[in-house]
Write a structure and sequence with these properties.
Residues 37-257 form the FAD dependent oxidoreductase domain. Helix content is 30%, strand content 20%. The chain is an alpha/beta fold. Bound molecules: flavin-adenine dinucleotide.
């Protein structure tokens, strides 16, 4: 046993935890047609959700995926659903002065609408993804972090469905069996889901609505041609009247102008239950940790 491997539990696995519930695969994928109305590049939430909306309205659409659908961030995320909490955070810190209040509040309302849309999707297509709206705790290490939350909750409560309230140290202890936090925020309106199972359900809905999917079809170039675009992929060419780029941080030279930073995020499975509400908890140091009960 090496020094490094000795720190891991016997059942340590490098396979993403969520893939136990739904592993990326090529079921439902097919050949690359010569042409289509819309080609979507990238099969994550963005690409598949777009394909579902278009196909459900009768548009001919294919999703071109470099590897397998869901192989990107969409089956690796934390599964937190907040509808505005993170938007509010960046808005207040970086964009506030430049964007002005109405722009910020508009984005918060848009995020809240996105949350409602997600719930509609889950219900409409009967997606089995362990979705629960049972809140989220943002636990603070310092008084400054508590202050930052206090400065944000009025706007969040006014423009989103977050329903946030502050927790003092004692209240936090009753929500979370830990002594280390000085307080925090309880986001009653937040929820969580199983990100890979949600992705699998979304993909099934899109294919069922008539969307097509081509796997191992990495797009290498997009050129204007006729009244549309000629797209070169690892599996040949396809002509599309319109193109949607949904490549996230995995984007490459074929879609210049966008770029991303990839990061690795370990998942730790532990047995003891430490949160009676059984909700998601986010700790506030720079290295993020967001325990999520799975049992
Ligand atoms: C560790 C982590 C935790 C997160 N936690 C949360 C959370 O708790 N809540 C939340 O709401 N969000 C969370 N997110 C963010 C969320 O996962 C992403 O915003 C979301 O999954 C992005 O979906 P997407 O469709 O844009 O991209 P992706 O799912 O990354 O899909 C992009 C796809 O494009 C494909 N692609 C790239 N280039 C090409 C090409 N040239 N040709 C063809 N295909 C290509 C890739 O292979 C990939 O499959 C988290 C993200 C990470 C990484």
């Amino acid at each position: 046993m090496t020094a490094q491997s000795s720190i891991f539990a016997p059942d340590f696995s490098e396979t993403p935890y969520w893939w136990d519930g739904c592993r990326p695969n090529d079921a439902g994928a097919g050949e690359l047609p010569r042409e289509t109305d819309v080609a979507i590049i990238g099969a994550g939430y963005a690409g598949i959700s777009c394909a579902l909306e278009l196909a459900a309205r009768g548009t001919e659409v294919i999703v071109l995926e470099a590897e397998l659908p869901g192989i990107g961030a969409s089956t690796l995320s934390g599964g937190q659903v907040t509808g505005g909490v993170n938007v509010g955070k960046s808005m207040s810190k970086r964009v506030s002065a430049a964007a002005g209040n109405s722009a910020i509040e508009g984005r918060l309302r848009e995020a809240a609408a996105g949350y409602r849309f997600l719930e509609t999707l889950i219900a409409r297509y009967g997606i089995d993804c362990d979705y629960r709206r049972n809140g989220r705790i943002a636990a603070a290490w310092t008084a400054a972090q508590v202050g930052s939350w206090e400065g944000r909750i009025a706007r969040l409560n006014a423009h989103t469905d977050s329903d946030v309230r502050m927790l003092d140290r004692n209240e936090l202890r009753s929500e979370l069996a830990s002594e280390v936090y000085v307080g925090g925020a309880l986001i009653n309106g937040a929820g969580h889901l199983h990100p890979a199972k949600f992705f699998g359900g979304l993909l099934t809905a899109a294919l069922g609505a008539g969307a097509r999917l081509a796997c191992h079809a990495r797009v290498t170039s997009i050129e204007r041609a006729r009244a549309g675009h000629r797209i070169s992929t690892g599996r040949g060419e396809i002509f599309a009247k319109r193109v949607v780029i949904a490549t996230n941080g995995y984007t490459g030279p074929a879609t210049p102008g966008s770029n991303g930073v990839l990061s690795r995020s370990p998942r730790i499975r532990s047995r003891p239950r430490f949160c009676p509400r059984s909700c998601k908890c986010r700790s506030s140091p720079r290295i993020a940790a967001w325990p999520r009960p799975t049992g």
